[in-house]
Amino acid sequence: MSKLLSVTILLISLFAANAIAQEPVTAVSARHILICYEGCAARGSFTLTKEQALVKIQEIRRMIEEGEMEFADAAADLSDCPSGSTGGDLGEFTRGQMVAPFEEAAFNLQVGEISEIVETRFGYHIILREK
């Protein structure tokens, strides 16, 4: 094989690999923890003020970051979302299925990364991207 052909094949392979790496993510799989407060859009009766809910979610995130709790255990024990019963598992979802701030955060995370606190009309979330 000629040197020119070898270099051409190598360049085509590099361009193809780069194109694959640049493909936009169309679906993610995630877990989340939700802390609701009085007046949020979530169904239920919540007694925390917005400020108290923020303090609570900050403490939960700290405990996860410092290894005091596993994410799924924190979701099961502390989340106000029904998904807490499955460790906060939301399964796989595509763009347009979640409220905008939640979607933006989830799609911008790397696999295995935990989000900063995300506020939606349902309350405060922490998101763990799994896929």
- How many DSSP helices? 4
Q: Proportion of β residues?
A: 15-25%
User: Structural class, from secondary structure content?
Assistant: alpha+beta
The whole-angstrom Rg is 20 Å
Percent of residues in helical segments? 40-55%
Q: Please report the distance between the alpha carbons of the first and last residues.
A: 41 Å
Question: Strands across the major sheet, in which order?
Answer: 2-1-4-3
What's the total count of β strands? 4
Main sheet: strands, sense, barrel: 4 strands, antiparallel
Uncertain residue segments: 4-20
Q: What gross morphology would you assign?
A: globular
Overall mean pLDDT? 88
Order of helices and strands: HEHHEHEE
How would you explain this protein's 3D organization?
With 131 residues, this protein is α+β, with helices and mostly antiparallel strands. Strands 2-1-4-3 form a 4-stranded antiparallel sheet, sandwiched between helices. Strand 3 (118-120) and strand 4 form a beta hairpin. The chain is globular, with a radius of gyration of 20 Å. The protein has 4 helices and 4 strands; from the N terminus they run αβααβαββ. The longest helix has 20 residues, at 3-22.
